[in-house]
Amino acid sequence: MLVEPDLEFIHTLSRRIGESYKKCMQCGTCAATCSLSPESAAFPRKEVIWAAWGWKERLVHDPDVWLCYQCNDCSTRCPRSAHPGDLLAAVRQESIIHFARPRFLARWVNDIRYVPLLLAIPALLLGLALKLRDPIAGVLGLSGSGDDRIVYAYSSHFPHWLLNGFFLTCAALVLLGAALSARRFWRSMKTSLESAGAKPVRGVWSSLGAALKNVVRHDNFAVCSTAHIRNVSHPCFFFGFFALTAVTLWVITSGINPLISGPFVYPFAFWSPWKILANLGGLAVVAGCILTIRERLFGTAYNTAGNYYDWSFLITLILVALTGFLCEVWHYFRMEPHRHVAYFAHLVFVFALIVYAPYAKFAHVVYRTTALVLAERYGRKRGRPPVIADAARRTLIVGESPATPVRAGGGER
Fold first, then answer.
1. DSSP state, 113?
2. What is the mean pLDDT of the chain?
3. Which domains are seen in the chain, by residue range?
4. Residue 399: its pLDDT value, please?
């Protein structure tokens, strides 16, 4: 096999996580200790050596990279402190950039230097939409006044029809981009497996059902021993965000929702079931953020505190929740113009969370779920070796030494 080292890829990995992964001596401790790694072609051993070779093309098309949950069982037990868990996290970041379109936006989102620009974009777009609300309302034949049933409404400055149209358009574009990225990712991972001789062991729909069941139940988090706190913090993120999304969709669809009978008045009263669900969801998100920050800074599960890629998503998520609570408090205390300023900031962070999702760590929702479906379909699960077409191709999946030596392009390494 001819390996063409990608020196830029090697430098990128070294810049993000250091060069500890180059200490790997291929002892196999990481693969043996991982509770999620399959019996054959176990990760992360093979991925660490591929990274040392600079084999970016192989790594970004490797579905096993996404089966790792970075619980760091492997990193804490590595005799050379090679930090394979951190390495796979860095490879996942590169994989997101590789599959995302437009790629320049993915690079912006993953570079701290572009934070002012990334926040300025939603602020300018929202400001422009609010400035043009009256002309747009006139063209559409909409009333510019707020709902007279609400004494102290946000809609006097932020009309619901304008915000709904703005964010629904953004969400539609994000879903389209995420679907296209997932399609490219699926085809790439499928080609990678099938070119090595793997064959499907179950159908696509049954694989999807099993993967979604895994995601909802958080089965894979429960088997990690080092970062066991993730079995608490990640469900807080997942179900808290799900609750907030459910309330948002309920509000947006109020005009066509068949489950809503009688007059629908928003904002909700404090003791409304939907207000309670939204508050519980926000508290769950904040709790998940606090637990994760505490573990990163003071726990033993992480060999490193993470890089900008990890922290940017966490900070955006907690800012969305905190500004939401701030809007609610200032609204009840009738604080003008504080509540509107807080609401505008909240909308900016919501935009950043949603629109930049396909390029940030939030993209794990798409890529990891897709990888889990592939793992179910091709038998890439613990204790279930894949079906290999012939033994000659077995080296690419199992990671055994090939009969012919690996040769680096342009000379020996």
1. G
2. 82
3. 2-102+386-408 (1.10.1060), 111-368 (1.20.950)
4. 46
